[in-house]
From TrEMBL:
Main location: membrane
Entries under SUPFAM superfamilies matching the protein: Transmembrane di-heme cytochromes
Cellular location(s): Cell membrane
Species in which this protein is naturally found: Sphingobium jiangsuense
Cofactors required: heme b
Keywords: Cell membrane, Electron transport, Heme, Iron, Membrane, Metal-binding, Transmembrane, Transmembrane helix, Transport
Protein name in UniProt: Cytochrome b561
Entry's Gene Ontology cellular component terms: plasma membrane
Example of a GO MF term: electron transfer activity
PANTHER family, sorted: CYTOCHROME B561, CYTOCHROME B561 BACTERIAL_NI-HYDROGENASE DOMAIN-CONTAINING PROTEIN
Every Cytochrome b561 bacterial/Ni-hydrogenase domain range: 9-175
Signal peptide span: none
InterPro entries: Cyt_b561_bac/Ni-Hgenase, Cytochrome_b561_oxidase, Di-haem_cyt_TM
Length: 175
C-alpha cells in the first residue's frame, strides 16, 4: 500500500453504486433465466419493476455524479488505466440508463400491463407493436443487457487487480 490517503467516494455515491450493482446482477439473472423461472415465480414482472427502479436511481446517481466530482485516482496509476477506467465508468452510466429505458419502451409496445410490484401502474410510452422503435428497443435491450456481463467482469477484475496486485486502495474508495 502506497503512503497516500485513500480518498473515498461520498456516502450517497457509494450507497447508490452497491444498490445498483446488486440490482443489475439480479436483473441479468432474472432476464436470462426468465424461461427457467416461469413455473416457480413471476420473474418478468419483478424484472420490470426492479428495472424501472434502477432507471430512477440511475438518473439521480448521474445528477449526483455530475454535481459531486469523483476523488482523484492514485497519482501513480498509468494513464492508459485512468483512461480505461473513466471510459468504462461513463459507459456504465450510459448503460444503467439506456438498458432499463429500452426495456420500458419495448414493454410499452407489449400486451402486458406495467405495474410496480402490484402497488401502482407504470405508464406506457406511446409505442406501437412491431414499430421500428419497439424492435430497436428490443434488440438494444438484449444486446446491451448481455454486454453487461463481460464489462462487469472487466470492472470487477480491475478492482481485484488494484486490491491484490497493485495494492493502491482503489477498492476502498467505494467501500
Ligand atoms: C438495468 C436494468 C435491466 C437489465 C440489466 C436488463 C437485462 C435483461 C436481460 C439480460 C434480458 C435477457 C435478454 C435475452 O434473453 O437475450 C432481459 C430481458 C427482458 N427485459 Fe430487461 N433488463 C433491465 C430492465 C428492464 C426493464 C425496465 C424492462 C421493462 C419495463 C425490461 C423488460 C424486459 C423484457 C420484456 C425482457 C424479455 C425480452 C424477450 O425475451 O424477448 N427489462 N433484460
Ligand atoms: C455490477 C454492476 C456494476 C456497475 C454497473 C458498476 C458501475 C460503476 C461505476 C459507474 C463506477 C464509477 C463511479 C463514479 O466515478 O462515479 C464504479 C466504480 C467502482 N466500482 Fe463498480 N460497478 C458495478 C459492480 C462493481 C463490483 C461488483 C465491484 C467490486 C469488486 C465494483 C467496484 C468498484 C470500485 C472499486 C469503483 C471505484 C473506482 C475508482 O475509484 O475510480 N463495482 N462502478
Amino acid at each position: 500500500m502506497q503512503e497516500q490517503a485513500v480518498l473515498k467516494y461520498n456516502g450517497v455515491a457509494r450507497t447508490l453504486h452497491w444498490i445498483i450493482a446488486l440490482a443489475i446482477i439480479t436483473e441479468i439473472v432474472l432476464g436470462l433465466g426468465n424461461d427457467a423461472f416461469r413455473d416457480s415465480f413471476p420473474a418478468m414482472p419483478i424484472h420490470k419493476a426492479i428495472g424501472i427502479t434502477i432507471l430512477a436511481l440511475s438518473l439521480f446517481r448521474l445528477y449526483w455524479r455530475i454535481s459531486h466530482p469523483a476523488p482523484p485516482l492514485p497519482a501513480a496509476m498509468p494513464r492508459w488505466q485512468v483512461g480505461l477506467a473513466h471510459g468504462l465508468h461513463w459507459l456504465f452510466y450510459a448503460m444503467i440508463i439506456a438498458v432499463p429505458m429500452s426495456g420500458w419502451i419495448m414493454s410499452s409496445a407489449g400486451p402486458y400491463p406495467l405495474q410496480w410490484l402490484g402497488l401502482f401502474d407504470i405508464p406506457k410510452w406511446p409505442v406501437m407493436k412491431d414499430s421500428p422503435l419497439a424492435e430497436a428497443a428490443h434488440a438494444g435491450h438484449e444486446v446491451m443487457g448481455k454486454l453487461f456481463i463481460p464489462l462487469i467482469l472487466l470492472h470487477v477484475g480491475a478492482a481485484l487487480y488494484h486490491q491484490f496486485v497493485v495494492r493502491d486502495g482503489v477498492l476502498r474508495r467505494m467501500l
